[in-house]
Structures are given as C-alpha cells and as structure tokens.
Amino acid sequence: MKRVFSGIQPTGNIHLGNYLGAVKNWVEKQAEKENFFCIVDLHSLTVPQNPEQLRFETRSLAAMLIAAGIDPDKSTLFIQSHVPAHAEGCWLLNCVTPLGWLQRMTQYKDKSAKQESVLTGLLDYPVLMAGDILLYDADEVPVGEDQKQHVELARDIAQRFNHVYEEEFFVIPQPIIPQAGARVMGLDEPTNKMSKSLAEKRGHAVRLLDEPKEILRSFKRAVTDSGREIQFSTDPDKAGVNNLLGIYKAVTGKSEAEVIADFSEARGYGDLKVGVAQVVIDMLNPIRERYQMLMQDPAELDRLLARGAQQAAAVAAPKVDQMKHTMGLVLPA
Ligand code: AQP
Q1: Which of 176, 228, 235, 265 has a CA that sits 20 to 30 A from residue 41's CA?
Q2: DSSP state, 172?
Q3: Is the beta carbon of 22 within 6 A of some atom in ligand 1?
Q4: Cβ neighbours, 10 Å, residue 18
Q5: Rounded to two decimals, what is the model's pTM?
Q6: In angstroms, what is the span from residue 108 Cα to ligand 1's centroid?
Q7: Are strands 34-39 and 3-8 parallel, antiparallel or unpaired?
Q8: 20-69, pLDDT tens digit by residue?
C-alpha cells in the first residue's frame, strides 16, 4: 500500500480551492492508501497569527477535515506541533539545504514581496514541509498545483541527503496533482488562485462554511466576460468561465464533454453561475452540518487528535533518530 502524506494550514477560511485541490482527493483515495494528514500549525506561524484565533482554527480545521470525510480510523490525522520530530527534522534538513534553493521558491518570493518584514520561518517553510513528508517515507503527496514546487524541493532535499549521507535513506516522494480542481481561481479575479488570505474579501472565495445564500451570491458576482459561449478555454479573457466550468467538473466528476452538455440549454452566463452554485451548495451542505455537530464536542476532537499524534510519532520519532545517527549525532543512552 502506498503511503501518503499531506498537510493543511489552520489559517482559517478553508475554501473551495483547498477542498477541490487537496482534501477531496485525500478522502476519495483514503481506503486505498496508508494516510498521514497533518494540520500544519508550525507552518502557519511563518506569518503573524493571533494566538487565540490560531488555537480555535486548529480545532476547527480538525472538525472540518473529519466532516469532509477524513476518517480517523482509516487515516492518521494529527497536529504537526504535537509530534516534535517535525521541528527537529526541519533543523537537520536545514543543514543539508542550500540557501539559494529556498530563495528561488515562487511562494516565498510572492509572499515576501507583500510584507515589510519577512520572518526567517517564511523562507524555511519548504524545509519544514520537506521534513513533514520525508519523516514518513511518503510515496505520494496529494496537493494543489501551487504546492508542486515545494514537493519537488522535498525531492531535491531527499536526494541530496541520500547522496551526502546514505543512499536510499529517504523515499523520494511524488507530487499527486488532481486532474480537475488543481488550481481553483478567485471568483473576483480569475487569473489569480483562490486564496485564504483574500477569502474575507467579498466575492473572492467560497468558504466551506458559507451558507447557501452566500455561496449563490458569490457565484452570481463571479467575473466572466462579455461573451455568451460556454466552453473550456485557455484564453486569459475567458478565465472566469473556464474557472466556473473547472469547478463544476471537479465537483461532479464529469468529463469536459458532459459538463458542456449540461449547459447546452443555458441562456447565458447567468444560468452557468446558478448551475455551478447549486452543485457546490449540494456538496457543502452535509459537510457544514457535520462540522457543526463535531464542534460541539471539543473533548472528542482532542481525543482523536491525541491518538493521531501517537500514531504519527511512532513513525516519525524513530526516523528522526535515524537521521541524527546518520548525521553523526550521539543519541541519548
Ligand atoms: N486555489 C487553490 N486551488 C487548488 N488547490 C489549492 N490549495 C490552496 N489553494 C488552492 C491547496 O490546498 C492545500 C492546503 O493548502 P494550505 O493550507 O497551505 O493553504 P494555503 O496555500 O495557505 O492556502 P491559500 O489559500 O493559498 O492561502 P494564502 O492566502 O496564504 O496563499 C494545498 O495542497 C494547496 O495546494
């Protein structure tokens, strides 16, 4: 059975992009793989956070993932900071990773350009992520398109470690990018990806906890173009329509031809927007209801997360000890 690792930050506002690009695929393949799904709270500290809010968002995300279909009996679901091997692994991998590799990362360049003072953690983000994956000897890392470069860096770091210290020490992981939903674009700006940090902006994102009325409103406001043709297209002027069709395709699992056939009677983009909103609302309704139930029992959530952390540590702690030994550190007697 292939081993899977993937993570998600507890930074609030989990949106349709996170769901279609990552979580939905985790759930669908859950029974076929050995899974480690991690709430990467240490990653979220790479930009300033409100401590109370972060604590709330961490439990809220756990509830959301379970509500979305992650079964804690089939998958190991845990909080990154509960397993100290992640922070230790990051330090050890920092000591084999050239600085230039990190400075070249697109996400670092984008995010640092938007901030006056850039935290060291933001530059180091992909090394922490590499450790997350490599500590579990994960074969596959299902992520959205935006994280592909980071998984490729994790491969490079693993290869360098294997070359410097011990051949085949780390499994070289593969990024798994979904065929549909890999890059959901902002509804207000369909040439940029839907993003958590913009999700408070009206009409940008569909958040998984949005009420049906709000979802419909967001889709009705979606930016399209002045035409009428409902077709998949790579033309940047048609990015809005393409995004709506892409969302419909990812939600329904239909082929492009079937998607277009579903809108053959549409009288214009208005019908398309309502049609897409409807499938999204139908998909999210049961998830939102389950989430609300789970949030009523925080003790049970904490219990599940503690069990997940134990299962994760049973794999990650010995691996980090092997890393230390391989790198020449003395393990405690
Ligand atoms: N727009 C997207 N389309 C498809 N997949 C996406 N992912 C993120 N945005 C999209 C995927 O969601 C998973 C969890 O990512 P994360 O927790 O690291 O989220 P993020 O990248 O912080 O989220 P945002 O929305 O991208 O936040 P900001 O505003 O900080 O840039 C990953 O697998 C990711 O690929």
Answers
A1: 176
A2: -
A3: yes
A4: 25
A5: 0.96
A6: 14
A7: parallel
A8: 999 999 999 999 999 999 999 999 999 999 999 999 999 999 999 999 99
